[in-house]
Amino acid sequence: MKPELKIADETERAVCAAICRSGGIRAREIAKALGLDHTTVNRVLYSSPLMRELCWQDGEHRWHGILRQARPHSGLREFAGYYGLVGEFLSLDEEAWLAALTEGCRNIGRSLSDARGLLHSFRDCREQMLTLFSDLREMLGESCLGWEIAFELRLKRARYVRIYADVLVVTEDRVFSLEFKMKSDPEHEEVLQAAKYTPYLEIMFGPDYEVIPVLVLTRARDRFEFVGIGSADALLPVCSGDMLFNVFNEYLGFLKD
Q1: What are the extents of the domains in the chain?
Q2: Element (DSSP H or E) covering residue 126
Q3: How is 219-235 classified by DSSP, letter by letter?
Q4: What's the whole-number mean pLDDT along residues 32-61?
Q5: Measured between alpha carbons, how far is residue 255 from residues 87, 114, 115, 135, 147 in Å?
Q6: Residues 71-106, buried b or exposed e (16+ Cβ, 10 A)?
């Protein structure tokens, strides 16, 4: 049985999905569609910090989602330093990718201070992803080229919440949220950091997606394990970059015994 981490507010997730799958919808229509009372829907719409990041209301009181919950999730461009299909990412050389990433980071207000160390971490992260997709193409063929990938996800447009993710890989029904650390061993705080954005990502992507947080240790080798998340019963996959394909296999099951 796979370890799971499911802690999203289901009402908030359902309301967000109703908005992001529509072309514009009023609060009463949301309530009717979900079988909720109007007061509950309004509470979510007007008191949820995440709604202020992901949704907006037009002059006719219709709610719209910035991120549509359908593939491709083109609205991710509004929140990421770099977004594209995996095949597009792999077609770029390092400098072209880095230029696109840094420009995107400026567009979303991502600080690029300490540029030397930050750019080094960007390049290191890219190398880890190149290794992953080289492995996956050998095991899955070209199907993974149609997945989506986002680097440097930042939700702080309205400054009500702050959600940071190093890399998201979006398959047909899963979102892998990868937190990279240039270390050989996991620390307790870093495990918590890798897991803590899961409920927000569950709301962003909706009920059709399973969100899988992962801690990747870029200075480790031949490492793949599950570790406990604080006092919770849930487990989080921790791996070295060269073993990251094992995390994907754990949930996608493409390797046979």
Answers
A1: 70-252
A2: helix 115-140
A3: T--S-EEEEE-TTSS-E
A4: 90
A5: 22, 41, 40, 12, 19
A6: eebebbbebbbbbbbbeebbebeeeebbebbbebbe
Query: Does the pLDDT value for residue 61 go beyond 90?
Result: yes
Closest CA to 200 of 11, 40, 55, 13: 13
Task: Please write the tens of the pLDDT for every residue from 79-113.
Answer: 999 999 999 999 999 999 999 999 999 998 888 87
Nearest CA to 147 among 223, 237, 54, 76? 76
pTM score above 0.70 = yes
What whole-number percentage of the chain has pLDDT above 90? 64
| Token reading at 163 | 């959600």
Which helix H or strand E contains 244, and what residues bound it? Answer: helix 244-252
Residues 251, 210 contacting (CB under 8 angstroms): yes
- Amino acid identity of 117? G
* Mean pLDDT along residues 119-133: 94
Do 181 and 216 contact (CB within 8 A), yes or no? yes
DSSP single-letter state for residue 60 = T
Retrieve residue 153's tokens. Answer: 């996800």
In CATH, what number does 70-252 get?
A: 3.40.1350
Report the chain's mean pLDDT, rounded to a whole number: 89
Q: What is the DSSP string of 185-209?
A: S--HHHHHHHHTTHHHHHHHH-TT-
